[in-house]
Specification:
The chain is an alpha/beta fold and 243 residues long. The chain has helices at 2-8, 11-18, 48-60, 68-74, 104-107, 123-131, 149-158, 170-178, 199-202, 211-214; strands at residues 22-29, 34-36, 63-67, 89-93, 114-118, 135-139, 163-168, 184-189, 197-198, 219-227, 230-237.
């Protein structure tokens, strides 16, 4: 993944030039495009080798982002455990502040999470999260009443984040793609058929009438390799202004 590492090395220059972090989208899916066997239930797709790769990617990024759905279902750690390197700063995309104060990324992570929410949130919930160590970022909302992703990236850049790794879930992956806010992609394909939550229907490649449905997103400078039983592909977005 030398080419990928070379792109990522330009993250700070990208932040200074654009006012936004370099965004890497990283996720795993099955051969039939499923992200999970059932909605709301985590499914192990990638094997040990690609999991180690994912942890190396985490260590290469300043920050890592997941949506509130992932926090509620998985209670993820979002740390670097299978590779050497520093833990990235966790960010939770949580428009209406549903993150539990006892969530691992808030109460136990070495770098307590930043929770991105919109205005009008419950002050009691905010106080509980901040008392547990978290930091609430109040940001403008988009037309659907959710955190405006462009404003979030601007905010993270102002906080010194030059590279952001987006891990999921499906709705978050879809949102970053449909708003053309992704620079790099790392896709792991596990050798199984799940017949479950399909990315084409529900997640990463969903068309909801926005630009994604009208203008297919293309990766360029792509490479791939086998890691254990998994196939891992990476590339950069053709229309990314980062390179």
């Amino acid at each position: 993944m030398e080419a990928f590492e070379g792109w990522l090395a330009q993250a700070e220059a990208h932040r200074l030039a654009t006012g936004r972090p370099l965004v890497t989208l990283s996720f795993a899916q099955s051969l039939d495009g499923s992200l999970a066997a059932q909605r709301g239930r985590p499914t192990k797709i990638s094997g040990p080798a690609s999991q180690q790769m994912t942890h190396r990617l985490r260590a290469m990024h300043h920050s890592i982002l997941v949506g509130i759905g992932t926090v509620l279902v998985d209670n993820p750690r979002l740390t670097v455990r299978l590779a050497d390197g520093e833990n990235p700063q966790p960010v939770v995309l949580d428009s209406h502040l549903r993150t539990p104060a006892g969530a691992w990324v808030v109460s136990a992570h070495p770098k307590p999470a930043w929770i991105a929410a919109v205005s009008g949130i419950d002050p009691g919930r905010r106080m509980a999260l901040e008392n547990a160590g978290g930091r609430v970022l109040v940001l403008p909302e988009d037309q659907q009443g959710r955190v405006d992703l462009s404003s979030l990236l601007d905010c993270l850049a102002d906080l010194g984040v030059s590279s952001l790794m987006v891990e999921g879930g499906a709705a978050v992956i879809s949102s970053f793609l449909t708003h053309s806010l992704v620079d790099l992609v790392v896709l792991t394909v596990g050798p199984l058929f799940l017949g479950g939550l399909k990315s084409l229907e529900e997640g990463a490649l969903r068309s909801d009438g926005t630009a994604l449905g009208q203008h297919p997103i293309r990766l360029v400078d792509t490479s791939y390799t086998q890691m254990g039983e998994d196939m891992v592909l990476w590339g950069r977005l053709a229309d990314s202004g980062a390179f």
